[in-house]
Amino acid sequence: MFPSPVYIFTVLVILYGLVTIVPFLGIRLLFGIILFVALVVYQRKRRHLPGDVTIQDFLDIQSKLLPINYSYAEIKKMTNGFKEKLGEGTNGTVYKGKLRSGPFVAIKMMKKTIGTGKEFLNKVATIGSIHHVNVVHLIGFCIEGSNRALVYEFMPNGSLEKWVSSEQGNTTPLSYKQTFQISLGVAHGITYLHNKGCDDFVIMPHNILLDENFNPKISYFGLAKLDDMDNNVVHSFGMLLMNLARKLIIVNPNADAMWIYDQIRKGNEVVVTGDGTEEERKAMKKIIVVALWSIQMKYADRPPMNRIVEMLEGDEDLIEMPPRSFIAPHIR
Predict the structure, then answer these.
(1) Contacts of 171 (CB under 8 A, 6+ apart)
(2) Per-residue pLDDT tens over the stretch 243-283
(3) Which CATH number fits domain 68-153: 3.30.200.20, 1.10.443.10, 3.40.50.300, 2.30.30.220?
(4) Which end of the chain is more exposed for a tag (fewer CB within 10 A), N or C?
(5) What confidence score (pLDDT) does residue 87 get?
(6) 68-82 pLDDT, tens digit each
(7) Can the keyword ATP-binding be found in this entry's annotation (predicted)?
(8) Where does 161-318 sit in CATH, by number?
(9) 96 is in an annotated binding site
């Protein structure tokens, strides 16, 4: 397609004007005008780029930002001399800290046997590239001498274990809404980790941390590794859901998977009737059925995590019952 006559005329007028004024303005001024016009054109094009291109560029930049490398002295100052202990696990102790800018953080001091400095930094690099609303954000780290530490965002409601374990002494149960919110959020977090190539772990209640609104976040560093493929992350997620159900929403607190399955098949009510709405009770039943799918005996019968998310977000009436075959049917 040839340029329009108007376009050709405009170009000729501009060229004529430039040829006419160059002797008077000088080469430097002319170059400045050309540079200014080019900048205006570039900015106009940039403003008209598709929105997803600009967003993706931003995300690419963000994903390359590394966690902050703190000194041991800074870690000690943040924790006020390791004054307030939040918890202790197999690979370290967690303390409450505070950044100079004000926000609280959780600082995990790793045990001396955690591995070489290279292994630790490789792990930090992996965790530092993870950015998801349902995975705990790594703010920084410390590697100084034999000291190893991780600085995480602070989760005021602690771990899920505290809310489902009678040994923790917590008397306030989670609501139906919170239970479903936690179940779906953890499923989203696991799906994201799977897509990042992180699929060699199991999910436990103490690895799920809760923010001020009870939104769940997976603490990826320190997750237990798989011993075998039969005990995969989908199965561990199903066990987590069964634990939630048995502690919070099942009419029989001593129920095992077989009993729950048989009651649902018979059309009997298995969800505690309380203050929850009919919609919330259906959501609880959906959690139970998804859990039964996830702990299937045959590895091939367990749905992938993206399918589990679809099941949790979809209509409860459209979810079929799984086969009556489970790993570890007695949930304790």
Answers:
(1) none
(2) 888 777 777 777 888 888 898 888 888 887 666 788 888 89
(3) 3.30.200.20
(4) N
(5) 84
(6) 999 999 999 999 999
(7) yes
(8) 1.10.510.10
(9) no
Structure token digits, residue 189: 């977090």
Cβ atoms of 186 and 236 within 8 Å: the answer is: no
pLDDT band at 318 (very low <50, low <70, confident <90, very high): confident
Contact 170, 97 (CB under 8 A): no
Lowest mean pLDDT among 21-25, 233-237, 266-270: 21-25
Is residue 72 a contact partner of residue 62, using CB atoms and an 8 Å limit?
no
Give the residue extent of every domain in the chain: 68-153, 161-318
